[in-house]
User: Which sequence fits this backbone?
């Protein structure tokens, strides 16, 4: 008897990129396979807490572990998960945090625009 492998989709927002993955892969590995940047310093060992993402439907990922719950604290209630720990169990939509550099640039551009409007 042969085991049937089931594939699911991980849809990354706001970049609107989808990738087909096998059940059990972490969101971080799925992102890397899709060339989607998720910042991490610890190599996916849940120690740097930099790979936080918002999971739109918690049914699409593995149950949160006590260790992950302890590290994230109240963020868990906002559907925040560590991409290195959450494993795909169904097709799922994942929202990436804003890129810090792009956010800083956008903020500076907005400030310049407001200053120009004063003149």
Assistant:
């Amino acid at each position: 008897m042969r085991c049937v492998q089931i594939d699911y989709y991980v849809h990354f927002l706001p970049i609107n990129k989808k990738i087909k993955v096998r059940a059990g892969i972490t969101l971080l590995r799925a992102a890397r396979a899709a060339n989607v940047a998720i910042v991490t310093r610890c190599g996916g060992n849940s120690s740097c807490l930099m790979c936080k993402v918002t999971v739109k439907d918690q049914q699409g990922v593995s149950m949160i572990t006590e260790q992950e719950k302890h590290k994230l604290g109240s963020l868990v209630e906002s559907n925040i998960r560590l991409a290195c720990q959450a494993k795909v169990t169904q097709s799922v939509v994942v929202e990436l945090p804003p890129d810090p550099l792009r956010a800083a640039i956008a903020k500076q551009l907005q400030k310049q625009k407001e200053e120009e409007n004063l003149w």
